[in-house]
Fold this protein.
Amino acid sequence: MTRREWKIRATARLAGTEAPATVAALLLCHVLGIDKVALVAHSEEEVPADAERQLEALLARRLAGEPAAYLIGRREFYGRDFFVDLGTLIPRPETEHLVEAALEFFGDRQDVRFLDLGTGSGCIAVTLAAERPTWRGAAVDISSAALKTARRNAEANGAADAVSFIEADFTRPLPFACGSFDLVVSNPPYISEEEYAGLDPGVRNFEPRSALVPGPSGLEHPRAVEAAARALLKEGGLLLMEHGCLQGDACRALCPDAYWKDMRTGRDLAGKDRFLFAVRRSYA
């Protein structure tokens, strides 16, 4: 069977799933070790028997609902490839807004020190360090498996020397002095128990529950992020926190006026509430 034929058949079998033709092409490129250009340019080449067996196994997993990112072991984020596995949440395009907001806020400033709470795959911390090579940061996660993947991503994207990875629970006091950071950024678990029950099965059955659900209300970890940021940000420092599209008001309400100013809710490309933006007031 040629590459073109396999892609056509796989696309037909994947009908009803998300982006079937794209996923079929991704699987071919992954197993054959080629890029999309080579796939098109050499579409009439035969697929070796061993590769076809691998492809069939991956196709079966996709048909069972497993996300394509886990099948190929990576996902693009802010123009870079990031390794992912079943121990990490798959990076989403919406989370790129946190990176964009941070880069815009600090502009050309070179001495920014940042803290990423609940780093997962490390996509936020690693991207910040890759985009601004003079920035330095720390990335915290409670999962040793996630931190292993995050460190791998830092190495792959040239940020290993810029980010320190720390295994810790950010809902408890962290080993940093007050006022240590210019930026606290987080994509914490924020889905309520009720919302989790209604999630797409591909998310609910495969992505780590601990990276999605912090507790019954969904606000347990956002509340902890605010408390950590309040203690660890310098005066004038920035808090950026992703949240659910219906949590804008609730997350702003977590930030007392005595400690925060310029509070607002950032929206994603679909116009939905997506992240909290808040600046730490003076300590005086």
Remarks:
- Residues 263 and 278 are 4 Å apart (CA to CA).
- DSSP finds twelve helices and nine strands in the chain.
- Residues 87-280 form a domain with the Rossmann fold fold (CATH 3.40.50.150).
